[in-house]
Amino acid sequence: MAGHASAAGATFNALLPARVKRRDGFSQAETILGGRFSSLAKKVRVLGQSGSSGVRRQLVGKVYAVAAPENPTKVEKDFKLSSGEHVKVSVEERGQSQHINLVTDHPSPNLILHWGVEGGKGYKGGWRLPGRQCRPDGTVKYKSRALQTPWTMKGGNGREILISLEGDEMSDALNFVLKDAKSGRWYDNNGSNFKMDLKGEVALSASAPVVDVTVDEELCGIWAYLKWELAGCPNRSQAEADTEFRAGIKELEGLVRQGVSMDEIMRVARGEVRFSEFRLTTGLDVKKPEAVQAPAPAPPRPAEKKEEKKEQQKAAVKEPEPKPKEDVVLGSSIGMAQRDYLKLIKEVPVLSEEKLKAPKKPLDFIVQNAAVDESTKWRRLFPMGSREEIFAAVKQEVENGPYKVIITTDAAFPLVLHWGIAKGGRGRQWVVPPESLLPLASRIYDDGKAAETAFLDCGDEECDLETLGAEVPLQRLTLEVPFDQKIAGIQFVLRSDDKTKWWKDGNGNFFVPLPGSVEETKHVEVDTSTVCNDELTRAIIECETNKDHWTLMHRFHKAHDLLEAVMRGSFTDIELVDATARIYCWLRYSATRQLTWQKNYNTKPRELSHSQERLTSAIANAHRNTGGETQEWVRLMLSTVGRGGDGQRIRDEILHIMHRNKIKEVKGLWMEEWHQKLHNNTTPDDVPICEAYIAFLESHGDNGVYWRSLSDSGITRQRLEGFDRAIKSEPQYYPDKRDALIRDMYNYLGILKAVHSGADLQASAAAAQNSIPGSAQGHLGYVLSHLGDPQILPFMEAAVEARMELNSVVAGNLDLMYLDLALENQIRQAAERGAGISGPAAAGLVTPLLQNLCLSAGKNEEICFCLQSWEGLPNSVRGGFPNQEEALQAVAVIDRIRRALGEISDGVFNRIGEASSVMGKAFGCEDWAVEIFSEEVVRGGPAFALSLVLGNVEGSFRSVANLGAWQVISPTTAVGRVVVVPGLHEVQDKVYSEPTILLADRVSGEEEIPEGVVGVFTPDAPDVLSHVSVRARNMKVLFATCHEAWHLEEMAKMKSKVLRFNPTASGEVRWEEATEESLAAHSSDSLNSNKKNLKINVPKWCGKWVVSMDEYTPEKVGAKSRNIAGLRRQIPDDIKLPSSVTVPFGSFEKVLESKENSDVRDGIEQAMKRIPDGPSVALRTCRELAMQIKVPEALKKELSEAMQAAGIPLPESPERWDLAMEAMKGVWASKFNDRAFFSMRKVGLKISDLRMAVLVQRIVSPEYAYVIHTKNPSTGNAKEIYCELVKGLGESLVSGMVPGSSMAFTAKKSDLDDPQVLLYPSKSAGMYVRDSLIFRSDSNGEDLEGYAGAGLYESITMDPTELKKVDYVADKLIQDAGYRNDLLIKVAKVGAAIEDALGSAQDIEGVVGLDGVLTVVQTRPQV
Predict the structure, then answer these.
(1) What confidence score (pLDDT) does residue 35 get?
(2) Which residues participate in catalysis according to the annotation?
């Protein structure tokens, strides 16, 4: 059959070998196309025989050479299910009938075929349901959208279904998925349907030569982009874009039919051949004739023909049929380029994250002096537009005394102050100052409306300055204003002495408010002196609240000036990242219409566009010169400002439209009212107004459509009528002008968007066309042609790939920055459209959304590691069909992603929460807008889109992994009153007077459970063996993590009510409302159950500063030291124990007795007396004092000798000995920890009775650390060992310092060779330290019978620990199942061996060295 292939088929066959191979992660097609094709591209496929059609995508060009069949035709296709079974479909066409046979080897007797067809008589799109005569027995209709048919047995274990379609029922394609009715599991094609073509490409006879060519999908995108670019980058509706894309496919089909080779087509795609020339040579376009003199006009037709012609034209206009709304589906992946995602991590320049360290400037010293001078009531540093600056300060030496307005400048040329005053209660009205205020040598200006005072050389001592080794002359003048003059402020401009140049503050006057004046407090409702602790925020608030004439133009000019001042380092009292975030908040309030766009001033369109261009240019420059989080806030500024462009066209084109369509400029017409608004003060509102008018025209004059469109954009009738040039009329409908107006208005919409809507995709792509890398054009073409496409996965992938290609060139390029923002916005919208795709299929969206977030986030390191981990999962996970083991791994990665998203959200709230609130209240914004400001910033960003998708995926994966909604860490029944708290740490010092259930949003693992609490529920996931978990079990407190938010939301609704909670045998938690009487019944028992009245022996100092392992006794050291020593010679040789020495009980108290530490001792005693009044403050004082003690030289000497004898390496220098002593003092100081005090108080122990020994060991940075409980703490099963492992040091596991889950597993003592993984690790970082010493707490209050004191006190390394990101893709514990199983067996056997040696259940900590050797560092009886 191959020998009968057409010429076109031969051309494709010649290409195949070069395109199917992959090299270095990229296909050779990419090389062929010069980078335009990425690995996402579908490959050109040539099918020389039936049954090889493969999966096809919608809107992909196909060319067929098919001989008319004379005999019955038959084709077969094999579809593989995610579970491994197959469905084979064969289609036989006989005359006017199609016979479809489906056979599957799936074993389930409950299998159902969920199906429909495409095509047939009266087909209108979507799934068509064939008539009853075509439906097999047992078929039922499903919600009028599909048919469901049971399978019947077919010999052996197979099952089959026969479907016959005859006559008008004959169809083009069969669409189907499978469902197991019993389990509810669906089997689909990676989130979309299986599809079997029934005619055309499958209608093959044995003798019919066939060539089936599927054009590369990205080539279709490139072709669409080239056509759009050639057309001048027009602004198109979605329907027009769809039409153009299909037209491009038809062109490609036609070219292949003509015999044009793919090589020629690809040369055009690569840019080697001009697209316009190619179209001429292939006949796609016809060359326009040379201009010739126009012939004389034809004589007019008879008058009676005029109306007839109009009717003919009207009849010739065929209205487009409304496009049926398609359900959003996942769609098939088009593949994405393979990348090292860790290379996407953004380097953060120091200057972008720390205060900008600008070079010293002449006024710096004067600014700093004013800042610390108590008489300074107000100050401000203004830029003058170049390097020069002007500094104004208002001082008042005594209360109710006169104000001194001191103005200083470093300008090198003589300056004159041109000034007036603002009277209290009269706003900013300029008033000429009275003569009594004029300094010497002042005069009233020629027009009599202002005073002028020349600056003088500054002779004050603070002006005697040198900068960079040179003396800088400064100029200064002082104005004195009596306190009782009711003057609101001084306003001024500057001019050069020769009157050749003037300076303003942006486009307005400089203004210096006088504190306490009516003007200063007239608008501002917040006390800026206490709330606004930086000059930038004060400057923003003052310009918004104290300007009588203020428009978008003025705001944009002011924002430009402030941003440039920030970048110069003029605002020294605020970090650069905070400064850019504040400017963004300001501009966002403006963009969301919370600030006025016009007040007492009309702005010409060209003036507005000039201010936009000025600001956006400054934003682009700042983007180029920053990085990290600062760059992210700068980029976000651009989303609040229109591009600018040719603003004059707004004014001119609306007149042209009216004239062309003969719409009169008369009062009372909607078009004329809008024209007047556009003429006098165009704003971003004009974009949705234009869109609403287009919708009105397209609906044939439906006013309801007009108002709905405006409402969707947040524009009300009140807003329209509130414009300075009000729009009060309803739009008029002109049937005879409709089509021309629609064309004109779409064109006008493009003009408006070019000025006002910078992040509009089509406008951005048109503006950036000369800057777009060739490698991005194909992806962009696909996106532009598929806006609103129901298949969201390929759309998102193409948009992300386009952003990837822009990433290396976008910094500081304004056009590409707008295009990048527009693509990000399209990705977010697609994710929101796809939010309804639930279940595991939505997992396919995670990769592009993670990549999208990596590109947008300023601090993206953790997101890049999350992406690396997600991509490291098996393909079955990303396809949505993992097995249990794979689902466990996926849940761990999702947990890590969720924490990263939480950090991003928290970062936004921490950065702008308070600032946006202060600004919003000062601006007088609506309360709701202020309250949700930060939340809306998060919701509008790429992190929220990813969160939506994870919410759809996580539940399914947890179900497959057999992980329920709950993880019950400490199971017990509890009755208490519900209290909602932000975090457990914030309330650990409280004493609740009745049994209390806490709903805590944050639990890290290191907190203490407050007294009176009987239950804690949290969405956080502390380790089962963390300190707080151990203490919860010890105190019989119900402690559980919930992974489904709705459970906690329902509980939170019961705030302040009494509830009863019962853990179930299946691992869930059930609850019900209880009575106040039941609370009282449980109250005394619950509150007194922890008052165990324990007593501890208070040992005395043994007379030695250091004791060796052979000297360990209960009178000298704690259980931690004794247990390690007791293990010697009792455990297998392959389990190592560290050499140890201990500073014994009483050493700290003995050191305090020395004369040189008497002040420290007295201070601690006084602080301890204040503990009842405020424990936290008093305990912090004790810790600080403990760190100040002087360690005796005798102690150092004995410690050195004991360490040498034990083989423990000594610190190498005096400086490192100092580090060692600081660590030891830190352990002593930890006896005053808050959580230790609260824990001891609950069980009746006194902090004064605590004695702290210090265990000293060598520490080597390990590969892994582990904690073993030889009795399962969650179930109480003594026959089962429970273990947790982490990367690096174990402190990240037990202390809760590193959030996330450890690897958790269990092993039955009867079968230690079969460990069962319960959780895979999700911690983002591991703790590491250089080879060093560790000083471990070993108190007399940690291991009392019935009391878990473990973790209350510190263990401190001599060298600081370092947190390093964990890449689980490179971790053999995760990737190598054999290694993992062997290691878990070894760890489990360590636990069993130590329990056997000591005779009771043990809580064991240890490490796995880089050499694989297991070491036990401590053990204690498990409580």
Answers:
(1) 33
(2) 1027
